[in-house]
Amino acid sequence: MQQPFSIVIHGGAGTILKQDMTPELEKAYTLGLESALLKGYEILENGGTSVDAVRAAIIILEDHILFNAGRGSVFTKKGVQEMDAAIMSGADLKAGSIAGVRNVRNPIELAYEVMVNSNHVFLSGKGANDFAIKRGLKLEPDEYFFSQFRYDQWKEIRDSDMYSLDHTHQDIAELMKDKKFGTVGAVALDQNGNLAAATSTGGMTNKKYGRIGDSPIIGAGTYANNKTCGISCTGHGELFIRAVAAHDVNALMEYKGLSLEEAMNEVVHHKLIEIKGEGGMIGVDKEGNVAMVFNSAGMYRGMKTSKGEHKIGLYKEYHQLP
Length: 322
Ligand code: ASP
Description:
The chain is of the alpha+beta class. The protein has ten helices and twelve strands.
């Protein structure tokens, strides 16, 4: 019998409501998610590794202007883009993370380089940029990362002390006419039974002091372990860090015997809610079961499995694939 394989992706969670969308935007998000999903799935179908599948899916989302990762990342207080990313391999618990990186076209590739070509797990700031140059990664000028709607979002709050979650925060949401979300993540199980998880983000609009969210922190926003599951989170990073959200799902499965869905529900709908942590997460377990759980109004998400499941969702309900 063929080993099951699966991939699941997200493009951020938050106040994603149908009434705030235009049909064009809805279509653009759906197509962006679908192309990333299909690319990752194709790699798995051809016997590729879960690490390569999540990298490929994330690269497509990083290159897509609508998502808050790579091109199209949000602006910091200083008006630049500083990006965070992480990748983890569940087979050997190897991981690579980067934070506060600028001008690297695909931050996930830099995280991957840290995982496979350094003795470290986590690099930040200028040092991470130097490593990108050393490894010959593609760099782009500031203009490449620019997007008008992120710039407009930032203009609304740049003179305040507020930082915005790109996800909505009531008071901030009111300030932001245009609610756009978009940290990206991918989790996959390959035909060899290996899990991998990856997350990439521009973080939060107007962030300062070198703020780093949960996305690049192993165990908070990203985690994979072949014994249990792979997880990628999106939401208010500070709370996901405090909840050690991604690893907590693994722990509930490993030590308490919960299923993937039960463990994710526990973390997203109880543990995070208790500390007012808004957002969600995607996961795949070692049998290829997929879950996508969020406590926000919506989450950009999609899944495709060798068992024939194929879904894309933006809001609470799923919608018809084009
Ligand atoms: N979790 C990310 C952060 O706090 C933001 C997001 O998911 O959009 O940096």
